[in-house]
Write a structure and sequence with these properties.
This protein has three domains: 1-41, no CATH class; 49-162, 3-Layer(aba) Sandwich (Trna Endonuclease, Chain: A, domain 1), CATH 3.40.1350.10; 175-228, no CATH class. Helix content is 30%, strand content 29%. The protein is built from five helices and twelve strands. The strands form three sheets. The chain has a five-stranded mixed sheet. Strands 3-4-5-6-7 form a five-stranded mixed sheet, with helices on both faces. A hairpin with a 6-residue loop joins strand 11 (209-213) and strand 12. Helix 3 packs parallel to helix 4 (135-143). 22% of the residues are buried.
Length: 228
């Protein structure tokens, strides 16, 4: 009979248990404690972008891009030809201008990053801000293939990074026990990443394992079916 590697509690066939890729099994209670610890330890260490000044904003964006796998070079504060950061990954170079404004970002910023792309011989140009863009900036960026990232884009990326870090801590399989009968059975699963419930139908006749994606956060859950 399996037991929890954390507390030693024996786990019966009807128990819900979580199993790591290394074969370690922990009970519900210990898994919840682990989740709380991961939420504290794995949070992406970035500030509140809306409250940062211009320099702090640039530094936190540098950390964000490093989390995304880029090599990041900061340009000099003056005479940087319109680029604050230069990103490199997979033989691709991207020039980035960071804008921490209270007002909308105008087409002047777009003109500057286009010039920076040519100066640094970059593959792409990107403006990252927590503010919206003027209509003329949107038009000019569209016509010159300049990427525009606003506050919503930044928040979405940070949430995705935090979710990915949480998933890295333990790839889990949740084990359910079914009584024989219907081939297709509906079960309610609780995502260990976002803790939201969702329903999924499983054909227990065709498989004894399955993998599903949480519709709320995109986290991956692996399931194992055991017959009584």
């Amino acid at each position: 009979m399996p037991f929890c590697i954390k507390c030693g509690k024996k786990l019966g066939l009807l128990s819900h248990k979580y199993e790591s890729e290394d074969g370690w099994i922990i009970c519900d209670s210990c898994f919840e404690k682990w989740q709380d610890e991961q939420a504290r330890n794995k949070k992406i260490d970035l500030g509140n972008f809306s409250k940062l000044n211009g320099h702090e904003f640039e530094l936190d964006l540098k950390k964000m891009f490093e989390h995304l796998g880029y090599t990041v070079l900061e340009t000099p504060a003056s005479e940087n030809q319109g680029a604050d950061l230069i990103l490199s990954k997979d033989e691709e170079k991207i020039v980035v201008q960071t804008k921490k404004y209270d007002e909308k970002v105008s087409d002047k910023a777009v003109q500057e990053i286009i010039a920076a792309k040519n100066h640094y011989k970059a593959d792409k140009a990107r403006i990252v801000t927590y503010s919206p863009f003027t209509s003329s900036a949107l038009d000019l960026a569209l016509n010159n293939e300049v990427e525009l990232w606003d506050g919503k884009k930044i928040r979405d990326i940070v949430k995705s990074l935090e979710r990915n870090e949480k998933e890295k801590g333990l790839s889990v399989r949740k084990t359910y026990t079914f009584t024989e009968g219907k081939d297709i059975q509906e079960i309610t699963m609780v995502c260990p990443m976002c803790e939201e419930e969702f329903k999924v139908e499983i054909n227990i006749k065709e498989t004894d394992t399955f993998k599903v994606e949480c519709p709320h956060c995109g986290g991956t859950l692996k399931g194992k079916i055991e017959s009584q």
